[in-house]
Task: structure prediction
Amino acid sequence: MAKTKRLTLFGLIGITMAFFGTVRSVPTLAITGWTQIFYMLIAAVLFALPIALMSAELSTGWPEEGGPQVWVKNALGEKWGFVTSWLLWVQMFFGMVMVASTVGVLFGYVINQPGLSSNNYFIFAVILISYWSVTILNLKFDMVKIAGNWGAVIGVYIPFVILVILGVIYLIKNGIQPNSYLGNFKPSDLIPNFEDLGSLTYLSGIIFIFAGVEISSVHANNIENPKRNYPIAVIASVILLVIFNIVAGLTVSNAVPLGKLELANITQPYMIFCEDLGIPSIFVNIISLMILIGVLVQLSAWVLGPSKSMIKVADEGNLPRFFQKRTEKDIPITFVLIQAIVISLVSFLYVVVPDVNSAFLIITITTTILYCIVYALIAISAIRLRYKMPEIKRPFRLGSKGNGLMWFVSILSLISVVITLIVSLIPPSILDPSQYTGYIIYQVVATIVMIGIALIINKCKKPEWKKEAPTNNQSFSKNATREKDCLE
Result:
């Protein structure tokens, strides 16, 4: 049997960066001005690195498909394993609304109607149309196979590189603009203003850049010398991501006039750069179209991915039989339709909160909160499994002997989660004071409801929910049907 080709150190660095290289997060960084350097370092050191390193040990010790759900299930039992898988699914409801909201903004620039980017009713309508469209397409075609990797190249990597290049050229030409988010620099600007607590909420949005950092850990078993190379790859990837994001964020902070930055509008800095550097405006239309393609491809990939993970959880008996329904193409139809309906309801926030910037940030923070709860469960599980299953071989292990390093990394991760949850509940400074109470109630209720539903379902779980293994006769019948279909 041919040996599986192992990933090189540079190969894993490339894959890890590919997960988090997104141009959509740049405005959230840029709005914090010089403070973004502090925020990015906090997000990287306290959040991304500890979670990535813990996930690497867990994924090499428990390499079976399922990731966080498997780790938490082994450590804390089936109930919390189900809660983990549930939260990773429902966070998508909020995350995909945030991603889909950029479709309307980008489409406005593609058709030379930039004013539509701040029209909340238009954004709401486009979210509904775009998400339901990619859902229907995925029910009919294998969109991931059709799109391949070109969507990420066209819609993410090329626009990100162009943004950095244009931003650096703009900075060299014009210097630091006094009326920008970087103007009138003072050393104290590098540290958050703790008197303005609302500005701390942006840390939650910046941490969201690294949400999903555990995904790259699935490759930990497939890298040459994982004990040495995996931490090098993770640390190098995070450092590079911090550098690229800060360069992009600072150049955008320097170009956009203070108080005018639009969080959901990544096209805004391209327009400023092109106008200043004498680049034809059609370039902005092309870039907008490229990013739009990337966003639609990303939406398409998320339609089926989480659903296919959840239907395995349903088959194990964690959800009623209704959730186990599949189409002839093996698509988990119940999950796909439920997530489309819930995403439609969540997107109504763009009507309730008239300001597009505020709605975008609120939804980003909700997604981050749900992710953080999962990461808290992962950190607790990492420690628990050291004592509960010490005999399990871990090709990558934090610390050669003892559990001291694991305790340190896990506690560091839990501290970052607590900090993120606290700042997430502080109303953002861009909100009207009259909306503060509503904001806190929304975030608390949304979190409690999402966790509560999972706990209630688990409490009501019945033995007959578990999918029965097919009998030999049923397997024979299915194979015969397949052969008949092939012959026809």
